[in-house]
Design brief:
The protein is α/β, with parallel strands linked by helices. It has one domain: P-loop containing nucleotide triphosphate hydrolases (Rossmann fold). It contains 7 helices and 10 strands. It has a 6-stranded mixed sheet, sandwiched between helices. Pfam families: ABC_tran (PF00005). One of its GO terms (molecular function) is ATP hydrolysis activity.
Length: 215
């Protein structure tokens, strides 16, 4: 599958956040999106998914324009920075939304201190995130949009999560953004830089340096 985004424009009032953003992504590749805080990365993911509308957006799947919001196609999953599940959910109830059990979760992340029956509200931020990441990689969607997935994860669980992304990438379009730039660079097959409202494809680290971005 190919997902193409063309000529995105987004403004809030008089502030132009995104202008002339274009990206091309496909299954078999993990696409990284980097940029400074406030550059519009989270807004771009929400706009692609369809949670917010821009002043201009052309979205194509396999070169066919998508007229309705991407979420309405049933093909995409967005993991936002905010939590997916209510805090009173138990771990098992959250996993059950994606037809998974606690044993399935432990098979993937065996070193976690999470216990069966615990409510999400008593977990640490990283533990709660781990539950949501497990759901994301088992959601059986063709397009996966991940906003700050490494936030709060231990190095070991980050590595296990990366292994899961590589497991599903052959059949999934994956777009990931995170402030931990070195993790994104190591993980991604291609990278885009979002800067001053525009996107640019990063071919090598010198491209980032030329844009004044520390690497």
């Amino acid at each position: 599958m190919e997902l193409r985004l063309e000529s995105v424009k987004l403004r809030f009032g008089q502030k132009h956040l995104l202008n002339s953003v274009s990206m091309q992504m496909q299954s078999g590749q993990i696409t990284g999106l980097i940029g400074r805080n406030g550059s519009g990365k989270s807004s771009l993911l929400k706009l692609i998914f369809g949670h917010i509308k821009g002043q201009r957006k052309l979205l194509k799947i396999d070169r066919r324009p998508i007229q309705k919001p991407l979420y309405a196609t049933g093909k995409a999953f967005l993991l936002p920075q905010s939590h997916l599940f209510p805090k009173e959910f138990t771990v098992e109830r959250a996993l059950g939304f994606y037809h998974k059990t606690f044993a399935d979760f432990m098979d993937t992340f065996p070193e976690t201190a999470i216990k069966p029956g615990q409510r999400l509200r008593i977990l640490s931020g990283g533990e709660w995130k781990l539950i949501e990441l497990f759901c994301a990689v088992h959601c059986n969607k063709e397009i996966l949009l991940l906003d700050e997935p490494f936030n709060g994860l231990s190095p070991l669980n980050s590595e296990l999560f990366i292994t899961e992304l590589h497991r599903i990438k052959s059949k999934t379009v994956i777009l990931i953004t995170d402030h931990r730039i070195h993790e994104v660079m190591a993980l991604s097959d291609q990278m885009y830089l979002l800067d001053k409202g525009k996107s640019s494809l990063i071919v090598e680290q010198d491209d980032l340096r030329a844009a004044g971005y520390p690497v």
